[in-house]
Each structure stands twice: as C-alpha cells, then as structure tokens.
Design a protein that fits this description.
33% of the residues lie in helices and 18% in strands. The chain is α/β, with parallel strands linked by helices and 375 residues long. Strands 1-2-3-4-7-8-9-10-11-12 form a ten-stranded mixed sheet.
Length: 375
C-alpha cells in the first residue's frame, strides 16, 4: 500500500491511523525556513537581507538564544528580528540527570501545552542526542510508554532541531560533566514515529546536516532515523540523498507475534518491511540497524533468535538488542540475563553482528514517554 500517510482521510473502524490531531501551529522559526525564506522574512521588516544570515549564524554556529548578545546587529533591530526568526518554541518543565550527570533527560512543554522529551547522553568518544519527532505516538505498540499515551500532534522541523541546539548549548557552556563539547550524533528514537511526520523530519535532517549558516553542519553518518516499518516512507527516504542510518524497530521475526507487538505489521508484514530495509541499504550504502527490545517470555526464545538470524544472514545489517526498560504498571519486563545471553549467542552463531544496548537512565524514568506520562 502506498497511500500518503499524511493525507487526511476517514479511518475505517479499528484501523490504525497516522494523521496527527490538528492543534494550533507552532510559531514559525528560522529552522523551519530555507535560507531564501529567512531573507524574505527579514526584508519584510524593511531590513537588509544579510541580517538573516547573521541571525542564522548566531543560532546554528554560536548557539546564541539571547538577541541582546547579537552585537553585529543594531540594538534597535534585534527584538523585531528575534520575534520573526527565533520565537520561543519550547520551555523546560523538568530535567533529570543520571550517570554522574552525563545523561540528561529534559521534559519540554511546547507552545500549545503538548509535552515531549529529549535525552543527552555523553560517552567518552561521542555525545548523542535522542530527540522526539511527535508529541505522543499513534503506533500503539503495547510495551511502549509513549504508545500508551496516544498521539497528540506532529512536531515542527524547528521544534525537532531545537532539541539538538539546546543540548549543544549545554555542552558549549560546560554544563555537562566532561568539559565543553559538541553533539556528534542524533538519534530519532524519542517520542513518536519519525516517518509518520515525514516532511518535518526530513526538514530537520537538512537543518542538522546543512553547513552554517543554513544549519548545524553535522555528518549524516552520525544521524539515525528509527521507524516501526512504514514501508512507503522508507522507500521515499532512500531517495532523499541523505545517507542517514535507518533503524528498523522489528521486535519479532514472525508476523504472528509482530502483529501484536507492532500493530502496523498488520499493514506491512515482516517480509515487506525487511525488503524495504534492504533496498534502503543498497541505495544509501548504509548498514541497517535492527532494533529488538527483549521482552521476558514474549520474544526472547532461542528459536526466535534463530529465525531472526535466518532472515538477516548475509545482509548489510546490525542487530541492536535492547533490554526492555519497564514502565510503571506494565506487564512487560526485561528478559532474564541468561535468556539475553542465549539470544546473543544464537544470533552470532547465525553469522549476524549484534550488540546489547547500553541502557542509560533507568533511575530517571529512562523509557521514552515516562516523564510526559507522569507530568
């Protein structure tokens, strides 16, 4: 099925829907605009077009949020330009830290009251930002805290980018243990299904990878976009010329179980989803990451590991096993250590590269959506 997932239509009874509820539009921000659109916004104020490039450098390169510090712009013009190009998009509600301060989870309130989360994770060799692309999620995966909350709305390109810029500001200011630093990696693994908010996410990818003053100038190879398997969008992303890593949240190698764990599987089955992933790898030359949350007595059986290995053998792929971070009141919990080790052993015996994800932030409601749900 190749229906446009962002085109409004009336759902059939019991059918999954991908359209976000309509709420007030976020303020338009320079990160939502092309370079030409930024210049047009500035000239509409009666100011020289080059002021747009100056403000873009302040935002993307100098990470400056305070117009009063834009000393290369006349003081009388700063407030008007800031109002047009850098309106406030989100305000922090709560921040929690773990791992001696190197993991920092922030709950944000958007302009309309919607809540989203982002996480900064500093390692010895990199800094990764995990960002949200939707407020809530409509995919209904039963073991996911965000899925339990349902979908509130899509986020704008600028709201997505602002999460990364905010983390970059913290690093540049030396607020994260380890001294000054920079964001080297971004993973779209926070709240929401990124490919159900396709246009805004692709816009964010451009802002993250475009050189200053158009964007942050990050390497596309340091960016990962996750999906539960929206096949038409995977195919579309492969043609964008953005060699980001695709992370496929598979969670089960067989349709019978995946229909339950990942309800979108009732639309696109395992074979079809994997075929789209292999096409993505062939076109982009990027290794696909298979995300697999290990759930006790649900999907962690040895035979499922062998079936998974059979499906993935000889492909440009890596399996990322995720010990499930249980949410309050959920019947789902992480696999036993011995079952996790056996699952890894069976995959490796089948010739598949596999790692077990370093689970950070358990003591700060690490599962995505837990802070928003608590609030």
């Amino acid at each position: 099925m190749t229906q446009d997932l962002e085109t409004p239509r009336t759902p059939k009874p019991g059918e999954l829907t991908f359209e976000a509820p309509r709420r007030g539009k976020p303020p338009r921000h320079l990160a939502d605009m092309t370079a030409a659109e930024r210049r047009e916004a500035v000239t509409a104020l009666g100011l020289p077009a080059f002021r747009a490039d100056q403000v873009s450098r302040h935002y993307f390169s100098r990470l400056s949020a305070d117009a009063e510090g834009w000393t290369d712009i006349p003081a009388a013009q700063r407030a008007d330009i800031a109002k047009v190009l850098t309106p406030t998009l989100m305000t922090p509600v709560r921040e929690m830290t773990a791992d001696a301060g190197t993991t920092r989870k922030t709950l944000w309130r958007l302009h309309d009251g919607a809540l989203v989360e982002s996480v900064l994770m500093r390692y010895t060799d990199r800094v990764t930002m995990c960002v949200s692309s939707q407020a809530g999620c409509g995919m209904n995966c039963p073991f996911c805290a965000t899925g339990q909350a349902g979908l509130t709305r899509n986020m704008s390109t600028a709201e997505i980018v602002e999460q990364v810029v905010s983390g970059a500001r913290q690093l540049a200011a030396g607020e994260v243990p380890g001294g000054e630093g920079r964001v080297s990696n971004v993973v779209f693994m926070g709240m929401g299904e990124p490919l159900a908010n396709y246009n805004a996410v692709v816009g964010a990818l451009h802002r993250l990878t475009d050189d200053a003053p158009a964007g942050l100038g990050m390497s596309a190879r340091g960016i990962t976009v996750s999906t539960v398997g929206l096949v038409p969008r995977i195919q579309q992303l492969a043609q964008e010329g953005l060699p980001v890593t695709l992370a496929l949240s598979l969670h089960a190698p067989d349709d019978e179980l995946r229909d339950t764990l990942v309800p979108v599987n009732t639309r696109w089955k395992v074979d079809e989803v994997l075929a789209a992933a292999w096409d993505y790898a062939r076109i982009t030359k990027r290794r696909v990451s298979i995300e697999y949350a290990l759930i006790k007595d649900v999907n962690d059986q040895a035979w499922r590991a062998e079936l998974l290995a059979k499906r993935l053998r000889n492909k440009l792929v890596h399996v990322n096993l995720i010990p499930l971070n249980p949410t309050p009141g959920s019947k789902w919990t992480a696999s036993r250590p011995e079952d996790e080790r056996e699952f890894v052993r069976r995959l490796e015996a089948g010739g598949v590269a596999v790692t077990v994800r370093d689970t950070r932030g358990r003591e700060i409601d690490g599962a995505c959506g837990q802070l928003a749900a608590a609030e």
